[in-house]
Amino acid sequence: MSQVTVIGGGAAGMMAAIAAAEAGHTVRILEKNEKLGKKLFITGKGRCNLTNACDTEELFDHVVSNPRFLYSSFYGFTNRDVMDFVEKGGCPLKTERGNRVFPASDKSSDVIRVFVKRLQELGVQISLHTEVSDVLSEQGSVSGVRLKKDGQMILTDAVIVATGGLSYPSTGSTGDGYRFARSLGHTVTELSPALVPFEVREPVAGQLQGLSLRNIRVQIRNRSRLLYEAFGEMLFTHFGVSGPVLLSASSYVAGSLKREPLILSIDLKPALSREQLDARVLRDFEEERNKRFRNSLTHLLPSKLIPVIVAACGIDPDKRVNEVTRAERERLVSCMKDFRLTLSGLRDFKEAIVTQGGVSVKEINPSTMESKKISGLYFAGEVLDLDAVTGGFNLQIAWSTGRLAGASV
Fold this sequence. Notes:
By secondary structure, the protein is of the alpha+beta class. It has helices at 11-22, 38-42, 71-76, 79-88, 108-121, 176-183, 204-207, 244-259, 274-287, 306-313, 326-337, 393-408, and strands at residues 3-7, 26-30, 51-52, 63-65, 93-96, 100-103, 125-127, 132-138, 141-147, 153-155, 158-161, 192-194, 198-200, 212-221, 226-236, 240-242, 262-267, 339-346, 354-356, 377-379, 387-388. The chain has a six-stranded antiparallel beta barrel. A five-stranded parallel beta sheet has the order 7-2-1-11-20, covered by helices on one side. 45% of the residues are buried. The mean pLDDT is 96.
């Protein structure tokens, strides 16, 4: 039986502590916040999208960075295992659109309660308001941790670093784990915000603030090639664009956007070809033939978007519909099938759901989550160079890697 210290009481840390305690170790969680699961509390807008109910092998398709590293983790503790664990702990679940899994109550606190209850049952010592300044090692093995407040040293046989990344720093994710890793000889890859909204160059995004578009297709390009394409839902904000389809896009195009602005193309009517949309416009124009052009698009577009599209296609807004030429109509169809904005940057870590980059997985044993450099040192969750798209996949990474780390001590 070993003394195991878990740094961080979030999703990965709580799961790691439970697994280590179930294996018979004496476990202590050191958490700098006033409660466990602080970031978990705000995930999914407070509803906690705790995993995704897709087939387990499909999980890998939704991981952006280093999916193959997660083979042992995902199969060792699957999405079904997560759901069983939470439901057996007394929190019923439901599955929504896109296989997103939520507590039936829509309260993230109910999920956290399951973990806290299990930690208490297992006798895990929980130290809140306790910040670690250093992880200590001797002759290639972990020896203990030093606390920031009073410099106290806690001797331990194993340390599991589950400190999160840099996203939502108000929840305590301030990059401590990267500092620990570097001080012990680990490589930390380049860090950037991921699952984060985009800033847009054109002021029109601000005019459309609050407008949500469903069932649209987006494409993001640089000057020479297509970088990302997806179908889904988006949102205009005072600074640019957000929503599920674009948050996921940020994880794929962040590197390119650091080098140059990118072009966002929005197909407002992806279910219709250009010819079908032109026929639809013609039908509407027949019915609205004596109206002014700016008043003729109410059946095609949300009211907030109409003046923007009217301006973009360059047709006189006061022109009678029966006077609109074929060439003008084609311009209107082009605007609806390819409404373009310039992506100029990403919002910062304060608005990012996860961090892209982290402790290099090349230096971690994927079968145990143990460091290849320091024995007794384990990493789990967002501190690692692992990230996925929205839909519960990032929390699944946390549960699976945490479980494997704790069980491997």
